[in-house]
Structures are given as C-alpha cells and as structure tokens.
Amino acid sequence: MAKRETFRASVSCPGCGKSGSATWEENENPVHAGGLDRELVDVPHGFRRGQNRDADGDPEIICNDCQPNS
Length: 70
Description:
Layout lengths: L3 E9 L6 E9 L2 H4 L5 E4 L4 E7 L5 E5 L7
Antiparallel strand pairs: 1-2, 2-3, 4-5
C-alpha cells in the first residue's frame, strides 16, 4: 500500500484577495500507486469545497464572502 503525504497549498480569492492554506493528501510515489490519488482534506477558514472539479479532477475551493451559499 502506498504511503500518503500531507502538504499545504496557498489559496487566494481573485475577487476579494482573502487567502489561506488548504491541506491535501496524496500518494507518496505515484509510480507504485497508479496515479497521485490526491484528496482535499481541509480548506482555510472563510472558504468551502465546491461541487465542481478542475481539469485535474481536484475540487474547487470557493470564497464564502464572494460566492455565498445559495
């Protein structure tokens, strides 16, 4: 079984400039696990996980102030 690696990535809203760090996990070695198998673990305060995905298959991260819940 592949080891999981945790890392943080900066997130910023292009509308209001709010920023923070999202926490992700992925396979340590994609060669032995059939791909990165990346997972969004946590989003920064003031952001939320969206329903859509980007071209890499990662979930969108949405600013709560600029795109409030419907």
